[in-house]
Write a structure and sequence with these properties.
- With 529 residues, this protein is of the alpha/beta class.
- It has three domains: 5-280, TIM Barrel (Alpha-Beta Barrel), CATH 3.20.20; 298-362, no CATH class; 398-528, Alpha-isopropylmalate synthase LeuA, regulatory domain (Double Stranded RNA Binding Domain).
- The chain is 38% helix and 20% strand.
- The protein contains 17 helices and 16 strands.
- The strands form four sheets. Strands 1-2-3-4-5-6-7-8 form an eight-stranded parallel barrel, surrounded by seven helices. Strands 11-12-13 form a three-stranded antiparallel β-sheet.
- It is elongated.
- The relative contact order is 0.07.
C-alpha cells in the first residue's frame, strides 16, 4: 500500500482556536512530542507575522528532531511587491526550515476583494512565489486556499492556479476546504476533475476544516482518491469548529485502510500525545473523542460488559491498546454482575462469581445512584465502598466535627474559616482540633482537614486537588435541591476521583474530601505491601 505523509498544523492552525495560546516553550514541547509520534511534517507557525513564531523557528534549531521536518508557513508575496522586496515573504527563507508551505488565492472573490488585484496578476504571484522558494528551499508545498469553494464558482480558474503552482515546482498541491462546508461526495467529484485535468500523478494533499462535521471523512476520501499528504491538528483543534482530527485520521488510515504511515510504527503513543497537547493547551481532554478519549472504550450496560468479558470484539471496533488507550467498565444503576466482577478485578479485588456479596454491591450502587451519587468518574469512592461492603473498611481517621464560618466586610474580599476535630486512628486514637483559613468555605474546610491530618500522615503534603465540580441534581426546587460534588486529586503522577452528595454543599464536599484523603492513605499502604 502506498505511503501517506502526515502534516501537523497544531502549532499554527490549531493555535487559532478559541482559548488556545501557546508560548514558545509550549510549542517546542509539543513539537518534540509530535516527533515522538513520527509525524512527518510539523508546521511551526508564520515567521515574520509575529515575534513568537519567529522565535520558535530560531529556538527549534537547538533541538535534534529524530523524524519530523519543521515547516514554515506563509502566503504568496504581496501583490504590490515581489519576492525579493516583501519582508514577510523573505522571513520564510530566513526561518531556515527544510520545507515551506505557502497559501495562495484560488477563489475569484478573494482575488478581487481581498488581494484587490486582477485574476491574471494573482496567477503570476503564485508562480513567482513558488519558483522563488523552490530555488532556495528543499520542499515547497502549495496550499490552495478555499479551493473547493473557488472550484464551485469558477472551476477553470481554480484549476489554473494549481497548474501555475505545479509548473513553478511545488512538491505538493494541498487542496483546502477552508470554510469547511464541502461534503464527501463533492470532495470526490472535484478531486476526480483535478486529476483528469492535471494528470493522475500530480502530488495532492488535503487540508479540511470541520464546519460541516466532515473534516475526517473528507480527508479519508481524498486519500482514497490519491492524496499523499494529509494536514490536520491533534484532537482537531482550530479556528471555528476546528480542523481535521489527526487522532482519528491516523488510526483510520493505518488500522482500517492499510496505508503506510510513519506514525503507524508508534501508534500506541497516540492517546498519550493527544492528552499531552491538551494538557499543554490547558484544555480539558474530551472524553468522547474517538480512539483516544476516556470514554472511547468504556462499557456501561450489563449486557455489553458480559459480552466484552467473553470477547472484546463484540462491542469494540479495535483493541484499545493499539492506540495506547484502555478498556473501562463503568459502574452505575445499569450495572449487572459482569460490571462488578470486571471492575473489582480491575481494582485488584477478586470476587467469587457466585458470591452473595456481588448482589449486595449491585444493590448498594443502585441505591446510592438513586440518591444522586455517580461512580463513573469517582472510582476511588467506588473502591472504598466495595471494601466496606466486604467488611474491610479502609479508615485511617475519623471526622468528629467541623464548623465553617464565611464572612465578608463590605468592600473587602470574603474570607472563610473552618475548624475540624479528627481522631486518628478512628475510635481509639488521639483527637486533633485544628482551624484554617481559605478563599471560600470549601477551601477552608480542605485546608483545615489537611492541616489536621498532616501531623499524623506527612505524605498528605504530596496530594493536591486538581479539579472540583458541583452539579445541581433534579428534585427539590432551587436552592433546596441536592448537589453532587466531584473531586479529582493527584499525587506522584496518580489521579483519582471521589464523590459526595447532600442537600448541603459543604457536607457533599466533606464526603468527597474524606474519600480523597482516605484513598491517598490506602494507596500508600498498598504500595508498602
Amino acid at each position: 500500500m502506498r505511503r501517506v505523509f502526515i502534516y501537523d498544523t497544531t502549532l499554527r492552525d490549531g493555535a487559532q482556536a478559541e482559548e488556545v495560546n501557546f508560548s514558545v516553550e509550549d510549542k517546542i514541547r509539543i513539537a518534540l512530542k509530535l516527533d515522538e509520534l513520527k509525524i512527518d511534517y510539523i508546521e511551526g507557525g508564520w515567521p515574520g507575522s509575529n515575534p513568537k513564531d519567529s522565535q520558535f523557528f530560531k529556538d527549534i534549531r537547538d533541538y535534534h528532531l529524530k523524524h519530523a521536518k519543521v515547516v514554515a508557513f506563509g502566503s504568496t508575496h504581496h501583490p504590490r511587491k515581489n519576492p525579493e522586496t516583501d519582508e514577510i515573504f523573505q522571513s520564510l527563507v530566513q526561518a531556515k526550515t527544510e520545507a515551506v508551505t505557502i497559501f495562495g488565492k484560488t477563489w475569484t472573490i478573494h482575488v478581487k476583494e481581498a488581494l484587490n488585484t486582477t485574476l491574471e496578476h494573482n496567477l503570476q504571484i503564485i508562480e513567482d512565489s513558488v519558483r522563488y522558494l523552490k530555488s532556495r528551499v528543499s520542499q515547497v508545498f502549495y496550499d490552495a486556499e478555499h479551493f473547493f469553494d473557488g472550484f464551485k464558482e469558477d472551476p477553470e480558474y481554480a484549476l489554473e492556479t494549481l497548474k501555475r503552482a505545479y509548473q513553478a515546482g511545488a512538491d505538493c498541491l494541498c487542496l483546502c476546504d477552508t470554510n469547511g462546508g464541502t461534503l464527501p461526495h463533492e470532495i470526490r467529484e472535484i478531486i476526480q476533475r483535478v486529476k483528469a485535468v492535471l494528470g493522475e500523478n500530480v502530488p495532492l494533499g488535503i487540508h479540511a476544516h470541520n464546519d460541516s462535521e466532515c473534516a475526517v471523512a473528507n480527508s479519508l476520501e481524498a486519500v482514497l482518491l490519491g492524496a499523499s499528504q494529509v494536514q490536520g491538528t491533534i484532537n482537531g483543534i482550530g479556528e471555528r469548529c476546528g480542523n481535521a482530527n489527526l487522532c482519528s485520521i491516523i488510526p483510520n488510515l493505518v488500522l482500517k485502510m492499510g496505508y503506510q504511515i510513519s506514525a503507524g510504527e508508534v501508534l500506541f503513543k497516540l492517546t498519550e500525545v493527544s492528552r499531552f497537547v491538551f494538557e499543554i493547551a490547558n484544555l480539558p481532554h474530551p472524553s468522547r473523542l474517538p480512539y483516544v478519549g476516556r470514554s472511547a472504550f468504556a462499557h456501561k450496560g450489563g449486557v455489553h460488559v458480559s459480552a466484552v468479558l467473553k470477547s472484546p470484539r463484540t462491542y469494540e471496533h479495535i483493541d484499545p491498546t493499539l492506540v495506547g488507550n484502555v478498556r473501562r467498565v463503568l459502574v452505575s444503576e445499569l450495572s449487572g454482575k459482569s460490571n462488578i466482577i470486571y471492575k473489582a478485578r480491575e481494582l485488584g479485588i477478586e470476587l467469587d462469581t457466585e458470591s452473595a456479596l456481588i448482589n449486595k454491591i449491585v444493590e448498594e450502587i443502585k441505591k446510592l445512584e438513586a440518591e444522586g451519587y455517580e461512580f463513573e468518574a469517582a472510582e476511588a469512592s467506588l473502591e472504598l465502598m466495595i471494601y466496606r461492603l466486604m467488611g474491610e473498611p479502609k479508615q485511617y481517621f475519623e471526622l468528629l466535627n467541623y464548623k465553617v464560618f464565611d464572612q465578608k466586610k463590605y468592600g473587602d474580599t470574603s474570607q472563610a474559616e473552618a475548624t475540624v476535630i479528627v481522631r486518628v486512628p478512628p475510635g481509639v486514637g488521639e483527637v486533633e482540633h485544628t482551624a484554617a483559613l481559605g478563599n471560600g468555605p470549601v477551601n477552608a474546610l480542605d485546608n483545615a482537614l489537611r492541616k489536621a491530618l498532616e501531623r499524623f500522615y506527612p505524605q498528605i503534603k504530596e496530594m493536591e486537588l486538581e479539579d472540583y465540580k458541583v452539579r445541581v441534581l433534579p428534585g427539590l426546587p432551587g436552592t433546596a435541591s441536592k448537589v453532587r460534588v466531584f473531586i479529582l486529586s493527584k499525587a506522584k503522577g496518580i489521579k483519582w476521583g471521589t464523590v459526595g452528595v447532600s442537600t448541603d454543599i459543604l457536607e457533599a464536599s466533606c464526603q468527597a474530601l474524606i474519600d480523597s484523603y482516605t484513598y491517598k492513605l490506602f494507596l500508600d499502604k498498598k504500595r508498602k505491601g
